[in-house]
Amino acid sequence: MALLDQQAQLVSKPPRIMTAALVLPLSMVDADIPADAPIHAKETKAVERRGIELVFATERALGRQPQEQAFNNPGYDILSIPTQGGPSIRIEVKARIEGAEDFYVTHNEVVTGKNAVPHYRLALVTVSKAGPDHDQVRYVADPFTGIDFGDLYATGVRASWAKTWWAGTAPF
Questions:
Q1: CB environment 60-95: b (16+ within 10 A), e (fewer)
Q2: Are residues 167 and 136 in contact, defined by beta-carbon separation less than 8 angstroms?
Q3: Contact criterion met (CB below 8 Å) for 123 and 91
Q4: DSSP readout, 109-171?
Q5: Taken in order 28, 30, 33, 37, is the CA torsion positive or negative?
Q6: Domains contained in the chain, number
Q7: Is 124 within a domain?
Q8: Looking at residue 76, which CATH number applies to its domain?
Q9: pTM here?
Q10: For residues 60 and 172, what is the distance between their CA atoms, to the nearest angstrom?
Q11: Start-to-end C-alpha separation, the chain
């Protein structure tokens, strides 16, 4: 009964606002963004789609049958099956607008890449502002050799686009 009496005397206080944020659509502030501001993809899905489509075309040209994986598939975007037999290749596609400085690779993508070597490719696609005909792709074999998370709480790693691009080669 004493506990019930104490609970009956509880008084709720009005909430205190500790912080606030104003979220606006990009279209409302687009004109206020300086021309020299870092470039970020406004149409992320369109950029990713162009990357996937270029890698599909590249894989077909190499004589393989690419199969897109489910969006929530951890570790890779495309499973490419050789038409002449042999092991399938897992491909993680990272597409960025030209001029991008970095990209992010998740923990699952790194683990999948390490476990699937030598049948894994990191496909980097530079998406051109001039249109899809000017997009470029490079493949990186064994891209995660030097990455060691060392801690179970790591969720991924941010990597330099330029350094990784130059570590890549023509698709193989």
A1: eeeebebeebeeeeebbbbbbeeeeeeeebbbbbbb
A2: no
A3: yes
A4: HHHHHHHHTTSEEEEEEEE-TT-GGG-EEEEEESTTTT----STT--EEEEEHHHHHHH-BS-
A5: positive
A6: 1
A7: yes
A8: 3.40.1350.10
A9: 0.75
A10: 11
A11: 77
Is 58 among the domain residues? Answer: yes
How many CA atoms, within 13 angstroms, populate the side-chain half-sphere of residue 63?
A: 6
Q: Which domain holds residue 74?
A: 44-167
The amino acid occupying position 169 is T
Q: Report if residue 140 sits inside a domain.
A: yes
- The residue with tokens 């406004």 is 42
Does residue 133 belong to any structural domain of this protein? yes
Positive/negative CA dihedral, 171, 43, 70, 73: positive
pLDDT digits (tens, 9 = 90+) for 56-91: 999 999 999 999 999 888 789 999 999 988 899 999
